[in-house]
Design brief:
The protein is α+β, with helices and mostly antiparallel strands. The chain has 28 helices and 28 strands.
């Protein structure tokens, strides 16, 4: 619809015209269960909005995406729905100073994870509902002024099927008529309102704390999941991390949690990791682990729990005016997730994970043609949807870590405290926060913000070292490259080999400015074996090495004793590989030599992913088979020597399954599945079984019947997703044609099954088989973008891009499409441009690797 993609200018104009006093929303969800012959299953939504005219003008619009509008009443005057509703907006004319709008509509249940998502559990036939709105899908459930700066209290009443429980942002209970009624919320943006309904398994707890003024704070806690996952649900650990988070934020924010109760729902077919709806946080149910996982998985879940909790202050209590300042919530929440994780939970090495994992996401995003400043130029809602990216999250968090080093921890936290108190329940822009940080730090935050928040791109820092005849450093300088030479507060560490270990013996912090900065404090130190710029990961940059340091890492990376320093070196070597400065085969050699000695399980998992990606995308095609064989042999070798029952053993087992290439490898997988083969201590639980079966399906050794047998063992929603993925992964032209048709030519699959089908369709071992779909891809993506929801459009355009056809012809075809579609939706062009950049980068890296061969 023309009006579906709300622009920033329209939002600003509407905010200047009106303010919203409150929403009363009534939903009848009884149609969610039972037989329905309707092509689109709908529910009744009745919304009353009370708002005032505060500016000039008497006309505006309210947002609603719905199959039908039954009635519209403005200030007691009935409006003709057919005349005022165009499918995405209801036009309103003749506004008074005070207005009451009532909209009665039939809204559609969703299968794409947007709006009111409806899921039918294949295990028991139960129906589960939940809402997901960010950035602008509340309008799929009730009539709204769908922009973050028109905050208002919300009052929900929900009629649900008998036997169901319903939750929303506020506390609720069922009245005598069976309607669930909820306490009115504080003023919140529409995108964080929420309803969860169904026969969920629900566990409760309670958080209590005595505040500094002696007040007793008590927060009711709840956690829920589908009944089929209840036996796997470790709610005690979820509550433990939740309470630790509340302690940390109350200790540091000096603003009590402001939204009453705190429920956390783990829901099916979720598009995001989680969503910070105040009082009713929603998570993807994959954070409930059905089998054995590593501590890295629990750390990821704890990080997400704390990230969403940080949003209760950064984002919910204080909200950005428009999506340009999305970083005011996401960057802070990403930073606070790792910060609180390290200081308040058992995951004390979270900054290692941040340096190795989150920053890798940021570095990739910041080198794409679509890179943007952290404070981005968001023209409309499609722009906003795509800017939930590595820049807004991980780079923003990295820059905040740099800010803490620059301004000081105490000044930073005091700034946060003043920010909450000054702007509670309001909306802010960048300048609002900078003004407060200048107060608390005494520094010029405008210059800092200009360099770090208002420019794009990543700097590269490289050491330049000179020595005297006695082996003493005469000068150590840091060379900075990049379009914008930023001020960095960074540490430089000197390491040397001692007793078989690579240990730090000197360190200096310095303000790195301009193209060349001398670190005077390190002059006179003994010659190092390794110089590590950005030691302790204080700033955001790519690190390079001098020749001696690079030689040391090739021979001794595994000898670095400090886990953070080791993680930084792994990350730097991977960046050199992506930048075509290190041949992919050389990176694989380092992986084979030292991954087995990596103690941090999260870093090891990342190194595995990088090693696989190096062979798949960056190795010269003539060396791919050899590289894959070497990875598989190395994985099996480490699997056999890993401590029985350890998380390292499990991690190597999964990596082995992802790299198998020989007949002996396949026979071992088959033996592990049917019990004929054993590896001491390795528990082949159901999730691992699917991992072991995956390569057998992709290489034609597990047919539809065999995959069906596995589904019989695991006839659950998760099992169904695995089955769909494996069916689409089989090496058959007919299979690929069917998978393509299911995703591209039909919209019957849910978001989760679209994702699973795409994952199965795209197999590195099947480049030739899927080559014919490159031309088809470019022929359909513009139509598909126009017809599908933006989430499905993003999944398909990204997921089916023919990146495995990594040759100049595919690059040329991409350029041809871009040239011929200059007027295509900017968000669609951005996705294609990003994929093109990945392809061009792969071709450069392959050239580098070919020369090394």
């Amino acid at each position: 619809m023309p009006g579906e993609n709300l622009s920033r200018d329209e939002a600003h104009e509407r905010a200047a015209l009106l303010s919203v006093d409150g929403y009363e929303v009534g939903l009848d969800l009884r149609s969610a269960v039972g037989d329905s012959a309707d092509a689109v299953r709908t529910f009744r939504s009745e919304t009353t909005i009370r708002f005032r005219r505060t500016g000039e003008g008497t006309s505006t619009f309210v947002d609603l995406i719905a199959p039908a509008v039954t009635a519209v009443t403005l200030n007691g005057r009935s409006l003709d729905p057919e005349a005022v509703f165009d499918g995405s907006r209801i036009a309103l004319d003749g506004l008074a100073d005070e207005n009451v709008l009532v909209v009665d509509a039939q809204c559609a249940y969703s299968r794409t994870g947007e709006g009111m998502h409806r899921f039918v559990d294949p295990e028991d036939g139960e129906v589960y509902l939940y809402t997901q709105y960010e950035p602008a899908d509340a309008r799929r459930v009730y009539a709204t002024f769908e922009q973050p700066d028109l905050k208002a209290p919300h009052l929900f009443a929900v009629t649900a099927p008998e036997g169901w429980t319903v939750w929303s942002n506020g506390a609720g209970e069922q009245d005598a008529e069976g309607v669930w009624r909820f306490a009115e919320t504080a003023p919140i943006s529409t995108y964080i309102s929420c309803v969860v309904a169904g026969p969920y398994h629900y566990v409760t707890d309670r958080y209590t704390r005595t505040l500094a003024d002696g007040t007793e704070l008590e927060i009711p806690l709840g956690a829920m999941c589908r009944k089929g996952l209840a036996r796997h649900f470790d709610a005690d650990d979820v509550f433990l991390v939740t309470k630790q988070g509340f302690d940390f934020f109350h200790d540091n924010f000096d603003y009590p949690y402001p939204f009453g109760k705190y429920d956390q729902a783990f829901v099916p077919e979720y598009n995001l990791g989680a969503m910070e709806n105040p009082g009713m946080v929603t998570f993807r149910e994959e954070y409930i682990y059905r089998g054995k996982v590593t501590q890295a998985a629990y750390e990821r879940r704890a990080n997400v729990i704390l990230h969403e909790m940080a949003h209760m202050w950064f984002g919910d209590l204080v909200t950005m005016v428009w999506w340009d300042d999305l970083w005011l919530k996401e960057s802070f929440a990403d930073f606070m997730g790792s910060f609180s994780l390290a200081e308040a939970t058992r995951f004390t090495n979270s900054w290692v994970t941040f340096a190795n994992n989150r920053k890798a996401w940021a570095y990739r995003a910041d080198q794409l043609p679509s890179t943007h400043p952290i404070t981005a130029d968001i023209r409309d809602l499609e722009d906003a949807k795509l800017n939930f990216d590595g820049i807004t999250y991980a780079k923003g968090a990295s820059v905040l870590k740099q800010l803490v080093a620059y301004a000081g921890r105490d000044a930073f936290l005091e700034g946060a405290r003043r920010y909450f108190k000054r702007h509670a329940y309001g909306n802010t822009r960048l300048t609002d926060l900078l003004t407060i940080l200048e107060e608390t730090s005494g520094r010029d935050m405008k210059a800092w913000a200009k360099s770090w928040l208002q420019t794009s791109g990543v700097n590269t820092l490289t050491p330049a070292v000179s020595h005297d005849a006695e082996g003493r450093i005469t000068e150590l300088a840091v060379l900075q490259e990049g379009a914008e030479l930023r001020p960095h507060r960074a540490a430089v560490g000197l390491y040397r080999l001692s007793g078989g270990e690579l240990v730090r013996y000197a360190r200096a912090e310095a303000d790195i400015t301009g193209a060349r900065t001398v670190v005077a404090d390190l002059a006179g130190e003994a010659k190092p074996d390794l110089v590590l710029v950005n030691d302790d990961d204080l700033t955001y940059c790519k690190v390079r090495f001098d020749e001696d340091s690079l030689a040391t890492l090739r021979a001794h990376l595994g000898d670095i004793t400090d886990p953070l320093a080791r993680a930084l070196c792994w990350s730097a070597l991977w960046n050199q590989t992506r930048d075509a400065l290190m041949p992919a085969r050389d990176f694989v050699s380092v992986v084979l030599a030292f991954a087995g000695r990596e103690t941090d399980i999260g870093v090891l998992q990342m190194v595995h992913a990088w090693g696989k990606s190096a062979v798949t995308h960056y190795a010269a095609p003539a060396w791919r088979e050899e590289g894959g064989r070497l990875l598989a042999e190395g994985a099996l070798r480490e699997l056999r020597v890993a401590e029985p029952g350890s998380e390292h053993q499990l991690t190597w087992a999964r990596f082995f399954a992802a790299t198998v290439s020989s007949e002996a490898d396949f026979q071992l997988l088959e033996g592990l599945l049917d019990g004929a083969a054993k590896i001491d201590g390795l528990d082949v639980d159901q999730e691992l079984r699917w991992s072991l079966l995956s390569p057998l399906a992709a290489h034609g050794r597990a047919d539809e019947a065999r995959i069906g047998e596995e589904l019989t063992r695991d006839d659950t929603a998760t099992g169904k997703r695995h089955q769909v993925r494996l069916l689409a992964s089989r090496p058959s032209a007919a299979v690929k044609a069917q998978a393509w048709a299911q995703v591209v030519e039909s919209d019957t699959l849910s978001n989760a099954l679209v994702e699973a089908t795409i994952a199965g369709f795209v197999q590195p071992s099947q480049r030739e088989l899927i080559a014919p779909y490159a031309e088809k891809y470019f022929a359909v993506i513009e139509r598909l973008w126009a017809e599908r929801s933006i989430q499905i459009g993003m999944d398909v355009v990204r997921g089916l891009f023919p990146g495995l056809q990594d040759d100049e012809a595919t690059l040329a075809a991409t350029d041809t499409w871009l040239s011929a579609h200059e007027s295509a939706a900017p968000a669609l062009r951005r996705l294609v441009l990003e994929s093109r950049d990945d392809l061009a980068r792969a071709l450069r890296a392959q050239d580098c690797d070919r020369l090394a061969g």
